[in-house]
Design a protein that fits this description.
By secondary structure, the protein is of the alpha+beta class. It is about 20% helix and about 35% strand. It contains six helices and eight strands; from the N terminus they run H-H-H-E-E-E-H-E-H-E-E-E-E-H. An eight-stranded antiparallel sheet has the order 1-2-3-4-8-7-6-5. A hairpin with a 2-residue loop joins strand 2 and strand 3. The chain is globular, with a radius of gyration of 22 Å. The termini are far apart.
Length: about 210
């Protein structure tokens, strides 16, 4: 009896692997990741401006609304609002501006994309990945089989060497599905920047 108890205790100390259980594997990139990143307390353009203290703005108009870009220290945030084409000067859309009209600030908004390129950006990163983490760290957090790894060509004029992306599609009633894509930009085998974006599948296929 004493030998049996000692053997049982030894197996408990060795953990699941000793009992023949399969080691845990990373979960695929999915809705929970997007919700964790995009579920924010801000509700209006003014709220986002107060929280993120953008250095300048940019914007463009789409068929279903206006995208406003907040250029901030450590990255940028894209937020989607109702159609604001009557409020924003389209000539400033490519170069940005230091402020927005009061009418635009009162519009409700929600995140549609975020780009991290330095520590300190206010929005938490997906699964805690940080700028400077080793490339191999990604495959301990996401299934390597789901990764789309693409080298960055020298003639593209980018400082990055590779992109590692994960994506999934989400159905939308009465329209094209939305595709959520998380991209890590790799330089010297480390994460140099990250991007999370939501696009309609037909638009994503073109880009």
């Amino acid at each position: 009896m004493k030998r049996f108890l000692c053997a049982l205790l030894a197996l408990m100390l060795l953990g699941p692997a000793a009992l023949g259980e399969a080691p845990s594997t990373p979960l695929p990139f999915g809705p929970e990741d997007v919700q964790a990143a995009f579920s924010v307390p801000e509700q209006t353009v003014a709220d986002f401006a107060a929280s993120y203290a953008p250095e300048r703005y940019g914007w463009w108009h789409e068929a279903d609304g206006t995208v406003i870009v907040l250029y901030c220290a450590g990255g940028l945030l894209q937020i989607k609002t109702a159609d604001a084409s009557a409020l924003l000067d389209p000539m400033k859309g490519l170069t940005g501006a230091t402020d927005l009209p009061d009418e635009a600030l009162s519009l409700e908004a929600e995140p549609s994309a975020v780009y991290w390129d330095a520590p300190g950006f206010p929005l938490p990163t997906v699964r805690g990945v940080q700028i400077g983490d080793a490339r191999e760290t990604l495959f301990g957090l996401f299934p390597q089989a789901d990764a789309v790894c693409q080298p960055v060509l020298e003639d593209e004029g980018s400082a990055f060497e590779e992109t590692v992306s994960f994506s999934y599609d989400e159905p939308v009633d009465g329209g094209a599905p939305q595709r959520y894509t998380l991209t890590f930009y790799i330089e010297l085998d480390a994460v140099a920047a990250m991007r999370l974006v939501c696009e309609r599948v037909d638009e994503a296929a073109q880009g």
